[in-house]
C-alpha cells in the first residue's frame, strides 16, 4: 500500500474525533507527521495509520461521528486505536455501501 500524509479534510475529521479521547494531546501531536495508507479502492475516508510496529492489532474506539455525503446518504465514521493505544484505523462507510464522495469540514 502506498503511504501518504493526511490531507486537510482527514486532519479536520481526526481532530474532531480526538477532541474528547483519553490521551488526546499525545495523539493530536502525532497527526502532522502521521503517514497513512488508503484501505478503500474507491471513494475516500477509510485509511490505516502506518506504524513502526509490525503485527498491530485492533484495539479501542477513540471516537465516532456521522455526516451526510454529497448525495444525502449517511456516512458513519469510527477512529480506532491499536492495542498499544496508537492511532490504527479511520473507517468511513455509507449506509448504502456506496463509495464516500467527500469528508466535510469539521
UniProtKB/TrEMBL annotation:
Limits of the DUF6984 domain: 4-104
Record-linked Pfam families: DUF6984
InterPro entries reported for this sequence: DUF6984
Protein name: DUF6984 domain-containing protein
Lineage: Bacteria, Pseudomonadati, Bacteroidota, Cytophagia, Cytophagales
Amino acid at each position: 500500500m502506498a503511504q501518504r500524509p493526511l490531507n486537510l479534510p482527514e486532519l479536520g475529521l481526526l481532530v474532531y474525533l480526538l477532541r474528547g479521547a483519553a490521551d488526546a494531546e499525545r495523539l493530536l501531536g502525532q497527526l502532522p507527521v502521521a503517514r497513512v495508507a488508503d484501505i478503500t479502492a474507491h471513494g475516500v475516508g477509510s485509511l490505516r495509520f502506518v506504524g513502526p510496529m509490525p503485527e498491530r492489532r485492533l484495539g479501542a474506539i477513540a471516537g465516532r461521528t456521522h455526516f451526510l455525503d454529497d448525495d444525502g446518504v449517511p456516512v458513519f465514521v469510527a477512529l480506532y486505536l491499536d492495542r498499544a493505544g496508537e492511532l490504527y484505523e479511520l473507517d468511513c462507510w455509507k449506509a448504502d455501501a456506496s463509495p464516500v464522495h467527500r469528508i466535510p469540514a469539521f
